[in-house]
């Protein structure tokens, strides 16, 4: 293991070495130390609402099945038969009573227990089925967000999320009183390192530059709302690599400011909703449709990003998959959910008016970072006026790189196993 | 008078040619005012309004998409990718005289930033006869890869 890179070499408080994006050995270390020893987001509750429901996904590079058993408990299991390792399920989602390996027919329950082995007498007494379930990961859930980890020693999800929890609570107000549900996703890859994407979710600075053509395509009122760089928003380090970037302070708590005027682009929808709902509820729904005014970046793979979930998955040192999962109101009015779907399509995904331009920027960061040697990536924006809140959280202006510094601080903790106090200058 | 396969193929071949040659304003004129341009994420979807699509464009969104590609203010479309698309395997699924449904295959190559990428798709058109000639009332592009990961598409499929 002598050729293992020293993560400290790649990072200082206010900068990173360009090779942090493209060192293959560093990537291998990340897949172990970050993606096998932290809570990784795998699913939203609404994706597996009923007993027998399952989806297949990944924890880092590891294929997993997320299932709900007959008693309602959620399991996250490696998608790997205990016999000869074949994946036992290749469907994106479905409902089943069992997972049967296609190779030799070993059958597993929704909790991963090995139930049946064809021609078991061929093993004599050498097969203890109880000791050969699908390998279960540790699973915990907060506000419908399901996380899993390989590591049985790390603190529980509650303490890991910590100061991020109130922000998750605020984000879920987009249900307008109904539970939040997922409504499909856009999935795409870009040829670059996953950390470039991680940074972007806490980067307000790029918005008016990269998203000019999106801003051209919306009305003046929306343009004004999105003109937040230089505004009163902020970025706050929430600990454990999590951060929040508040772009539109008026849209932090969607249950407040219900007296605010309804934006012009939602007037027609409000009129239609008024046929069914009282005025106060109409305003609550309308505010929920518009989405939250902040991005909550949860280290390392989930963001609750204004109006959708952003999920990243490293595919290789220079290849990353991104999912933009649309969310809506489970049981809420169809016309309101339709409005949310159209807003999602407008900006997000590989054919949106926003995402392709983001992807172009990330692509260029990755390629540019291959140029030269020993040239730093700057992470110092907003540092000059960064301050500490009473609870100790660092914060700075909305376009500060405080959230990136927070993520990289945790990156170093995870990569070295040393606490933040000792690793940060 | 029914819509012939030749008429229908002539229209959608014109559309393909306009898109490959960046004549996007002319492309807008091929659609009915109420026409839709749809790229679903779910290959089995029919009720596009109630599900997430990659694109679900009415006339206004199509015009905005064209403006985005020609405006020079989108870094992923300055310039847009070059494309070459082939249409084939035409089959008339229905024809009631003024409206027809045609299905075909599309294979498209794009070149951008020194990279070639390709997309295969089944396309279903609803074409209608109007006083201004045959127009596209609905185009549904069902990408073979719709349920998998795409890459950024800053052009018109």
TrEMBL record, chain A:
Transmembrane segments: none annotated. GO terms for molecular function: 2 iron, 2 sulfur cluster binding; dioxygenase activity; iron ion binding. Residues 41-148 form the Rieske domain. Pfam families: Rieske (PF00355), Ring_hydroxyl_A (PF00848). InterPro entries: ARHD_Rieske_2Fe_2S, Rieske_2Fe-2S, Rieske_2Fe-2S_sf, Ring_hydroxy_dOase_asu_C_dom, Rng_hydr_dOase-A. Its cofactor is Fe cation. Keywords: 2Fe-2S, Dioxygenase, Iron, Iron-sulfur, Metal-binding, NAD, Oxidoreductase. PANTHER family: CHOLINE MONOOXYGENASE, CHLOROPLASTIC. This is Aromatic ring-hydroxylating dioxygenase subunit alpha. It comes from Gluconacetobacter dulcium.
TrEMBL record, chain B:
GO terms for biological process: 3-phenylpropionate catabolic process. It comes from the Bacteria. The keyword Oxidoreductase applies. Keywords: Oxidoreductase. InterPro entries: NTF2-like_dom_sf (IPR032710), Rng_hydr_dOase-bsu (IPR000391). The keyword Membrane does not apply. One of its GO terms (molecular function) is oxidoreductase activity. Pfam families: Ring_hydroxyl_B. SUPFAM superfamilies: NTF2-like (SSF54427). Belongs to the bacterial ring-hydroxylating dioxygenase beta subunit family. This is Uncharacterized protein.
